Amino acid sequence: MPILGGMAPKWLMSLAVLTLAVAALDGAATASAAHHPRAARIVAGPGHPAPVFAVDWPTYHRDNTRHGTAPGLPRVGALSVAWRAPLDGAVYGQPLVIGGRVIAATEHDTVYALSVASGTVQWSTNLGSPVPLSSLPCGNIDPLGITGTPVYDPDTGRVFVVAETNGGNHDLVGVNVTTGAVEVRVPVEPPMGDPLAHQQRGALTLLGGRVYVPYGGLLGDCGSYIGSVVSVRTDGSGPVQSYAVPTTREGGIWAPAGGVVDQDRLLFAVGNGESSTAFDGSDSVLALSPELGRVDFFAPSTWADDNARDLDLGSASPTLVGPYVLTAGKRGTGYVLRHDSLGGVGGEVAQASMCRSFGGSAVDDDGTVYLPCTDGTRAIAVDAAGSPTVRWHAAVAARGSPAVGGGAVWVVDYDAGTLYALDPASGQVLAQVAVGTAPHFASPTLARQRAFVGTMAGVTAVNGA
């Protein structure tokens, strides 16, 4: 059944789809063009709404909590490849599933709609020429096109992506989920630094009729970049809003899960900045208002050493678990924070040795956190007082970002190209299947009784989920 009424996450509960006059849209486009070097393209009127069902997956880890839990998934059985869809480039973002379509975006700046049943292409839309690695100051993705996970807006029927095109341009593009037609295209350049030194890797977040876009840097931390978040209305009109980390350089916001919505705030993990003397807002967890003002933050007391040694929190998105937030990054220490008062510098409720964590975690219905670790998933329990305990360490060293459903924890060994289903009680392997080499931090999508994995060659669908 559709996700409606009390069953729906907040971001799905809009009032009515806005209908704008052509003259008003022309004025909004002119204002946007004056702010950016490229003109905005906005359609006169809404797209074509399409519902989201409980068995769909419309955003990274299914909803804005980023818990990555699929309800009603059949109990895991023997795994087999249902189909492989070769596409024109690597799929770094998590595939979405909307109705009978799998939505995948590639590093060649192409958005695809594939049949859930067969993997056949229903439509494809190319958004421009991606940036070759030779044109970038550093990095490891070649070419660089669409990297962050898209988001679907059921009120307008549009899938939103950020396409990086030759020259280092960043555009938020709204594509009709039914036809593939481009209906909105708005420049969303980071507010500070050199656009070419910025990479859009974190998932997009839809909240209150706006799309939120996080920015970090390229592998190697080269050039003039400053971590930031940009937001735009889903109809493309009005001013672009932004927040930049108050550092002289770096402080990337790049963790793959993007913004985590905690009631009316967005939580982001921030990477290391340049300062090791005066706190510069980096190596932190930020709470931003919908208008992108900073309303709260946490940073470990070791922030200066973290900055100096690249041991920051920015590699993994924060995790909501009950009244707490669990965050872990490159140092290997996990911190438990109060979700409504993050604590500032050194203000954690508790901390414990966990693992070096990269990606996005998952949370089971009982509150167990499955943390992505460089040496294999950890299961973490946080008790009522906020004390964390490591329940188990997975039997396999798969480093992908977990998801939960069908009585299993699903994780990708992206280098080996293997999808594992793990026992949530012990971390032992229940089943496995070869899916093909996948991008770093890949996370499976669990929808419509299948698992879908973005790979370096396209998308692989797996039966048995």
Description:
The protein contains two helices and 35 strands. With 465 residues, it is mainly beta. Strand 18 (284-288) and strand 19 form a beta hairpin. The chain is globular and about 55 Å long.
Topology diagram in text:
Elements: H1 22-35, E1 41-42, E2 80-86, E3 96-98, E4 101-105, E5 110-115, E6 121-126, E7 151-153, E8 158-165, E9 169-176, E10 182-187, E11 198-199, E12 205-207, E13 210-217, E14 228-233, E15 241-244, E16 260-262, E17 265-270, E18 284-288, E19 294-299, H2 303-309, E20 319-321, E21 324-328, E22 333-338, E23 344-345, E24 350-353, E25 362-363, E26 369-371, E27 378-382, E28 388-393, E29 403-405, E30 408-413, E31 418-422, E32 429-434, E33 445-447, E34 450-454, E35 458-463
What is the structural class?
A: mainly beta
Strand order, largest beta sheet: 1-10-9-8-7
Shape field: globular
Tally of DSSP helical segments: 2
Biggest sheet statistics: 5 strands, antiparallel
CA-atom Rg in angstroms: 20 Å
Straight-line N-to-C gap = 19 Å
| Mean pLDDT level | 91
Strand content: 35-45%
- Number of beta strands: 35
Low-confidence stretches: 1-37
